[in-house]
Amino acid sequence: FYAEAGQTGEAVKAAEALAARNPADKKAQLNLASMYMQADQMDKAAAVMDKLRTAGQLTEEREYKQLYSIYANTENKEKDVIAVINEGMSKGILKPDYQAYLALAQSYYYSDQIPQAIEAWQKAAPLSKDGETYLNLARVLHSEGRIPEAKQAARDAKAKGVKNPADADKIINLK
What we know:
Elements: H1 8-21, H2 26-38, H3 42-54, H4 61-72, H5 78-90, H6 98-110, H7 114-124, H8 132-143, H9 147-160, H10 165-172
């Protein structure tokens, strides 16, 4: 009710009160996390969602996606993104889809776990709607000195379609 009236602060207070009265009520906790997200209080949203995760209460794919998305949009939370995605996949709750692999690849990359990042990009690229993910993979493989693999990824990028084919050609034509 409050959120619809544009009174985010009031909506958050109401959700906090409801969640405090019903700490075991998953729906009340998820609602609170949503309110925090709408109020752009990602750290609080993450804390609520992570408490549910720790208690084993995240049972739906969208719940895992919500949590890893919060972490992905929060600075220095790469390790949390990795943990949430890997846990969700290992439990069979989170589908190994393009978004999950891409978030995993980026989180590994930005936490300097390059081999794991490459592996995740290799899984994401075939699931992508275009060749841009293959092109990113080609760039990382190239920077790691894995030239034959980089060239193949660049060829795959062109085959799937990229905004700027010349970028892929630069890698393909490496000596």
